[in-house]
Predict the structure of Protein LTO1 homolog isoform X4.
Amino acid sequence: MADMFDGIVMAEQRFHGEGYQEGYAEGSHIGIAEGRRYGALHGAKIGSEIGCYLGFALTWHCLLQKCTDEKSSKKIRALESLIGMIQKFPYEDPTYDKLQEDLEKIRGKFKQVGGIF
């Protein structure tokens, strides 16, 4: 008689454990897929932002090439600095430990360059 009740009690614990394992595995799988989607979206936003900065900088750099005054030279130096920072940015390495720090530096430089214009 005691064995029958032990089987019932143990079945509940076993089903609870199996349910937990199945739920954990499914949640992990869904979490990985969701993380990839979020990463791709966030990466695309960063790429678009940096592309906009680079387009701005290259356009103005090209437009100012024929200007020889000191004010234009200062603008060109600032643009070249921004272009250099963008070209060194590690697009291909999402594990780069200073990615966010470098991105903030590029944003700051863009604001500085925008203030000159």
